[in-house]
Amino acid sequence: VENCPFLVLQTKGELVAGREMSVIVEFTNPLKQTLENVTLRLEGPGVLRTIRKEF
């Protein structure tokens, strides 16, 4: 898909089902403009409720 960045996801610490964990999400903006008011949404049906983080 054009202008769709490749995402790199890394987990931090021990992964335990049902417990909170930290995730590092990295990508390079392929657009020629600065991103503003960005919302990142993480979800895993049956595993993780939807989490939204605004930047």
UniProtKB/TrEMBL annotation:
InterPro entries (UniProt xref): Ig-like_fold, Transglutaminase_C_sf
Molecular function as annotated in GO: protein-glutamine gamma-glutamyltransferase activity
Descriptive protein name: F13A factor
Organism for this UniProt entry: Xiphorhynchus elegans
Lineage: Eukaryota, Metazoa, Chordata, Craniata, Vertebrata
Gene that this sequence comes from: F13a1_1
